[in-house]
Amino acid sequence: GAGVSQSPSNKVTEKGKDVELRCDPISGHTALYWYRQSLGQGLEFLIYFQGNSAPDKSGLPSDRFSAERTGGSVSTLTIQRTQQEDSAVYLCASSFGNQPQHFGDGTRLSIL
Amino acid sequence: RKEVEQDPGPFNVPEGATVAFNCTYSNSASQSFFWYRQDCRKEPKLLMSVYSSGNEDGRFTAQLNRASQYISLLIRDSKLSDSATYLCVVQVTNRKLIWGLGTSLAVNP
Fold first, then answer.
1. Do B35 and B56 meet the contact criterion of CB atoms below 8 Å apart?
2. Among A34, A102, B20, B105, which has the minimal tally of Cβ within 10 Å of its Cβ?
3. Complete edge-to-edge strand list for the sheet that includes strand A65-69
4. Are B36 and B79 in contact (CB under 8 A)?
5. Percentage of residues in chain B with pLDDT exceeding 90?
6. Taking 90 as the threshold, does the pLDDT of residue A41 lie above it?
């Protein structure tokens, strides 16, 4: 597709379950970012992939969070043993070089 | 000191007003600068890139001051539809983008 695609758009799950969020970036974009955003708050950086370089994981809030990017394209963000404080909108963005980022519509995650 | 700082506002202005936002950044090696707009419960969308010479897009004007390490966004003739959060973004080449927390604007009838 022409834009960044994220799935699912909404996810409701019980505390303690694992969840997997998917991001399909714009074709050819070498950089991919994951952010999360709680209502009324700013963007919180989670992880950054740039080409074949080691990812910048400095924003991951705990070891329950992990992400991978296979083949330099699709990325999955996994949250293990979810907690209620993990509830947020998870946004993926991609870019190429020094060009602006483009965002997906996000995944709205709710932990019951 | 945060890498990118913005006044959170909120800025409350009447329709037709001119409003300006500033954003300061700490890394003098920053090369790329952007303004994004985010509506409530939506993803951020690119408003405009910021170029060294300054640039204009309709009612919006962006400026970069490298010496003082700030960028600005000027909105003329504000519309109700301009109400949103405006996010400043800065990038050092080939490194991750750094986002400000945003400035909230409310344009009132």
1. no
2. B20
3. A5-7, A19-24, A75-79, A65-69
4. no
5. 78
6. no
State residue B105's pLDDT score: 97
Among A26-40, A89-103, B89-103, whose mean pLDDT is lowest? B89-103
Answer whether A103 sits within 8 Å of B32, measured CB to CB.
no
- CB neighbours (10 Å) of residue A43? 24
Q: List beta partners, residue A79.
A: A19, A65
* Max CA distance (Å), chain A: 40
pLDDT for res B100: 93
φ, ψ of residue A83 in degrees (nearest 5): -120, 160
The shortest CB-CB distance from A98 to any of B93, B96, B101 is to: B93
Copy the structure tokens of residue A97. 């070089």
| Torsion from C-alpha of A101, B98, B29, A97, nearest 10 degrees | -20
pLDDT at position A1: 53
Q: Which element (helix H / strand E) includes B25?
A: strand B19-25
- A6 at interface of B, judged by CB pairs closer than 8 A: no
Question: Residue A42: its pLDDT value, please?
Answer: 85
Can you tell me whether residue B80 is helix, strand or coil?
helix
